[in-house]
């Protein structure tokens, strides 16, 4: 009788441990793949939105740096200041190019996600 009690009690303990560990091990198994895809799409769209915001910032910065260069040229600034202004303009152009490339890649990846279906 003691042996039967030990087996029943051991079975209850083991089954309760297995049942309680089930949800922790399941993770996202209850969600189909398409929900993960939409999460990825949402991330890509937010990346595109953030990149467009950065692009607007770099455009405004480029305009400001070009105005500063024009002013320095008009007022006869030294060559070091003019070189610094031109480097700032080139940096803005490089940032704009990089951000446009990121937007293009994100849009292509977004389009490819919908073409898979």
Biggest beta sheet summary: none
Label the overall shape: rod-shaped
End-to-end separation in angstroms reads 61 Å
Q: How many discrete domains?
A: 2
- N to C succession of SSEs: HHH
Q: Work out the number of β strands.
A: 0
Provide the gyration radius in Å: 30 Å
Subunit arrangement of the protein: single chain
Helix proportion: over 70%
Count of DSSP H/I helices = 3
Spans of at least 5 consecutive residues whose pLDDT stays below 50 are none
Average pLDDT across residues? 82
Name the structural class. mainly alpha
Residue share in β-strands = under 5%
How would you describe what is shown here?
With 117 residues, this protein is an all-alpha fold. The chain has 2 domains: 1-31; 40-117. The protein has 3 helices and no strands. The protein has helices at 2-26, 33-75, 79-115. The termini are far apart.
Characteristics:
single chain, 117 residues, mainly alpha, 2 domains
């Amino acid at each position: 009788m003691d042996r039967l009690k030990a087996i029943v009690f051991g079975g209850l303990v083991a089954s309760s441990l297995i049942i309680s560990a089930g949800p922790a091990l399941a993770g996202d198994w209850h969600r189909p793949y398409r929900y993960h895809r939409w999460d990825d799409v949402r991330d890509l769209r937010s990346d595109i939105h953030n990149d467009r915001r950065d692009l607007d910032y770099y455009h405004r910065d480029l305009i400001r740096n070009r105005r500063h260069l024009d002013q320095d040229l008009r007022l006869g600034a030294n060559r070091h200041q003019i070189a610094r202004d031109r480097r700032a303009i080139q940096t803005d152009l490089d940032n704009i190019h990089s951000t446009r490339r990121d937007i293009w890649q994100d849009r292509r990846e977004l389009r490819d996600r919908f073409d898979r279906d």
